[in-house]
Amino acid sequence: MKALLVENIHPEADTAFARAGALEIERIDHAIEPGELMQRLKGVQLLGIRSRTRITREVLDAAPDLLAIGCFCIGTNQVDLDAAAEKGVFVFNAPFANTRSVAELTLASAVMLMRGIPAKSNAIRRGEWHKSAKGAHEVRGKKLGIIGYGNIGSQLSALASGHGMHVYFYDVEPKLAHGNARPMNSIEEVLEISDVVTLHVPSTPQTRGLIGAGQLQRMKKGSFLINQARGDLVDIDALAGAMRAGHIAGAAIDVFPKEPASADEAFESPLLAFDNVLLTPHIGGSTEEAQAAIGLDAGIKLARYAFEGGSAKAVNLPELEPGTLAEGRSRLVSIHRNQPGYLSRLNEAASAMGLNIASQYLNTSGAFGYATTDLEGAVPADLLQRIEAMDGTIRARLLTR
């Protein structure tokens, strides 16, 4: 089995692979264009990418051996998930491995904004010496509003509470509050009460443009906004207008509606005109520790699927965890259309070949089904051919010990 890892994926991925089985690994330290990628994917079963490599339907068509894609990052927007599912290619990611890194940067950003550090830093670069306590505040005793109380928001809550902040949060689902954090009934309540508002929600049709001119006006005069989640959550022009009017005292922005496609492309934003904005290049989760955790997390998921057929936490096909394959058994892995009678036909085929079914797991999701069948007995050489020829089969493979 062969893996292709591009975009300088952390070596911890190799650790995960080594635990699972023999695997030939090819590494490339940068993103590659679709044409070159299609050539390199010949004979490759596992592909590891980060955010810049695009996996289109055309790329998948050129990779018949590909079993799974690991997105060694948080999102999966760079992959055509529907096309991958139709090809029977599982897609995995590592959505929580950088939680601590983002939470730490957010808390640090709150401290820097409350102290007026961005403006003072820019001033000193111009030769100006603004040694004054005016407008500089401790975060202790201040109110932090968290919109989105998932893994990052809740961990930030604990860190901020440890710094003496009063935490208020809103989430669309009921969440258990950490420490002394208080849930609020609406985003508007969070905006109105907070000295610092920070966003930790995904990009969805419901959250895009979440913070616009109206929401900024509801925030306290002199408050701060932090967005280190997704670039389309905040109307940047509206934010610039609110800062120009003096209503918002500053902001920390790590993600943007339009980001440079490469290091050679210039970054443009109306926020560049403000000294009191902390701008960072989408690095909320970019720490050595986070990259190591992502490498291990996504690597384990890829390896588990490759060597055991486990698909827990897959993002585009049904999740299943059949466990370790027992000695002397063979495991038939079948991705299929979710239609009546498929499992019966599969079992009848196994029985007709003189195979005993020792254990079996099935899960379905939408148009797709995924089944693992542990078999006892001598497996005929044409087993896979028979299963693949069955009505409804998308892809089948056989694992042995």
List descriptors.
401 residues, 7-stranded parallel β-sheet, 13 helices, alpha/beta
Summarize the structure.
The protein is built from 13 helices and 16 strands. The protein is of the alpha/beta class and 401 residues long.
Radius of gyration, in angstroms, nearest whole number: 25 Å
- Largest pleated sheet: 7 strands, parallel
Cα shape: elongated
Q: Number of DSSP helices? A: 13
pLDDT average, as an integer? 95
Q: How widely separated are the two ends?
A: 15 Å
Largest sheet, order of strands side by side? 8-7-6-9-10-11-12
**Which structural class best describes the helix and strand composition?**
alpha/beta
The count of strands amounts to 16
DSSP helix fraction: 25-40%
Low-confidence stretches: none
Model description:
The protein has 401 residues and is an alpha/beta fold. It is 31% helix and 21% strand. The protein has 13 helices and 16 strands. Helix 1 (12-20) links the parallel strand 1 (2-5) and strand 2 (24-27). The radius of gyration is 25 Å and the shape is elongated. It starts with a strand and ends with a strand.
Lay out the secondary structure.
Blueprint lengths: L1 E4 L6 H9 L3 E4 L6 H7 L5 E4 L7 H5 L6 E4 L9 H6 L3 E4 L5 H17 L1 H9 L17 E5 L3 H12 L3 E5 L11 E2 L3 H7 L2 E4 L13 H6 L4 E5 L8 H9 L3 E6 L23 E3 L8 H21 L21 E8 L4 H11 L3 E10 L2 E9 L6 H7 L3 E8 L1
Parallel strand pairs: 1-2, 1-3, 3-4, 4-5, 6-7, 6-9, 7-8, 9-10, 10-11, 11-12
Antiparallel strand pairs: 13-15, 13-16, 14-15
Helix pairs in contact: 1-11, 5-7
